[in-house]
Amino acid sequence: MVGAGSNQTIERIKEVSDILDIVGEAVTLRRAGRYYLGLCPFHAERTPSFYVDPQRQLFHCFGCGVGGDVIRFVMQHRGLSFPEAIEFLAERYNVSISKTLSESTSSKSTLLKYMTVAEEFYYQQLRYAPEGSVAREYLRKRQISDPIIEEQRLGYAPKSWDALVRHFQKNGLDLRKGAELGLFGVSVNRSGEKFYDRFRHRLIFPIRNSTGQVVAFGGRTLEDEPSSGNEPKYLNSPESELYRKRTILYQFHLAQEACRKEKRQVILVEGYMDALAFHRMGFYRTVATLGTALTPQQARLIKRIADEVVMVYDGDEAGRKAMIRNFPVLVNEGLKTSCIVLPEGMDPDDFFRHHLMEDFETLMESRKDMGEFVIQEITKGWDGSTSGKLKILSELFSYFEPLGQPVIQSEYLKLAGKALNLNEEVVLKQFKSWLASSKHRVSPPKTLHKRNSKDLVSSCEITSSLEEEILKIIMAYPHLVERVFSKDCWRFFIENLLEEENKEEVLSRPMYLIFRAIHEEWLEFSKNPWNKNWFCIDHICNRIGDAKAQGLFSRMAFECKFYDNEETALMLLNDYLGAFEKKIIKIRRERLIRELAEAEKKGDFESIKITLQKIQSLGGIGDHKELNVKAERGW
């Protein structure tokens, strides 16, 4: 487990972790302004209320109130303890940590070992087993050379139903763990469980994570005609503890090194053989999806290593449609996106079997911007009618509306207008109409409305949200926190932080934990005042610890907003602090009145006198007539 003194390690993990990557495995997210929005994974809902802020690396559900940072999400979603979540993220993002291996980490290492054993078995079957000749012949026809076979450790799965099962048994390996990884299927009959190989008579493609470790396999059938109508041409490993297909790209581990050495540009293709076709030509800046549509997580993976993506899919209609579907996913991650349209019926593998790399470089020079390609392809379907224009615009809207980038949207809308013989203003007006409609609009999370001091009601009426209002201003203007903690009322509050039995009287427990964490962060900052960015949302979120309080804090982070100017915020803060001071005075007075009653019961006249003086120092006794009489008598 992660030991003491590992704060720097935790900060490093949070620095390299991508909350969109992690959350996106569980939630289908779409851009909503500066945030991402989806259905909450922690409670059932039909209307999305789950927001992710990638800039501040926070999430919050406005439905159930759960929120926090990336570590909190991993804990909540995977049911892990804090140390286990740290270990999960450390391994995910290749961060070294000083630790004693936990059971879960040890288990994962075992699973990786099992995948390596399977990889070597399949490789040996391809290179040396007589039965593997069919796979060797297939690769020869596809012009895959021995160096590539060796580099990729391509393999062959024998026809036998239990070839890998027997190999595992021979080496004393747990078949159940192999089943967890999708290497084996399990059937149950009267005699018990029976394990069988998942991959049979297939060419095997190892699938690796970003560090090059084998986490899954893809298998292409070598049957001329599949024995069953249900037998797929390509079969991939199911998802497991090691493999999340939404977050992995084929050949990413080699592409990231090539991009580092050459340039930040990636070729995106559809399949295994297409990616290896580029490898045949000595080109390694190529990645492939794994039989699914491109996901936001995969797009963010590409974003780490490249600034531009060039899609090279099959030259048929299905390939063009697939590229169009990928367009908003890539652009939303800030990636420049273009495409190369191959001749009809030709894929990258076909192209390189008949052309040289120089021919492809010529195509690269004339590649098409994806937005222009989308408009070109969709407007092909216009029948020339007015109603047809509206239909085409509606389809274009579905691609351009999610972009969330007004400048890019505007440029593409101009092109769309030209293609449909429409005035640019008309197109913009139609799009704005759709944006305003409930059908297309995404409601942002509630925000703090502008308020003036004259709008404030009495302190008695706002105490339930008073601390929240103070907190929102602090979040927007962190340097104003010194004004908060320098107030007498806050000194009293801070002095009572350690009085466990009294803190609920001052604040609710969640709000108490939040302000305690902020105060601790502020004290550390006071020792290092050169740190100008001291108010770190996720640092404070970690300090809070309590899940309910973290949820409240993350909600406040989403609801805080900047005022028109800092003077307005400062004016409101002073008003709120004045109201809070009245609240504290009221609490202190009520405590002293209770102390006075106790002193009277005991007949302790000295304590009575001192307590009355304290009450009067708070600004008077108020409407307590009996106490006024006592004060007049000099008690």
What this model shows, in words?
Helix 24 packs across helix 25, helix 25 (537-544) packs antiparallel against helix 26 (547-559) and helix 27 runs antiparallel to helix 28. Strand 14 (308-311), helix 13 (317-331) and strand 15 (336-339) form a beta-alpha-beta unit. The protein is α+β, with helices and mostly antiparallel strands. The longest helix has 37 residues, at 566-602. A 5-stranded antiparallel beta sheet has the order 1-2-3-4-5. It has 5 domains: 7-100, Zinc finger, CHC2-typedomain (DNA Primase, Chain A, Alpha-Beta Complex); 103-242, DNA primase DNAg catalytic core, N-terminal domain; 244-378, 3-Layer(aba) Sandwich (Dna Topoisomerase Vi A Subunit, Chain: A, domain 2); 381-436; 453-586. The chain is 53% helix and 11% strand.
Write the layout of secondary structure elements.
Elements lengths: L6 H10 L2 H6 L5 E3 L2 E4 L11 E4 L4 E4 L5 E3 H9 L3 H11 L10 H25 L5 H9 L4 H7 L2 E3 L5 H8 L4 H6 L3 E6 L2 E6 L4 E7 L5 E8 L12 E3 L15 H10 L3 E5 L2 H9 L5 E3 L7 H10 L2 E4 L5 H15 L4 E4 L8 H7 L2 H9 L2 E2 H10 L6 H15 L5 H14 L4 H13 L22 H18 L4 H5 L2 H8 L7 H4 L2 H19 L9 H8 L2 H13 L6 H37 L2 H13 L7 H8 L3
Parallel strand pairs: 12-13, 12-14, 14-15
Antiparallel strand pairs: 1-2, 2-3, 3-4, 4-5, 6-9, 7-8, 9-10, 10-11, 15-16
Helix pairs in contact: 3-4, 11-14, 13-16, 16-17, 16-18, 18-19, 20-27, 22-27, 24-25, 24-26, 25-26, 27-28
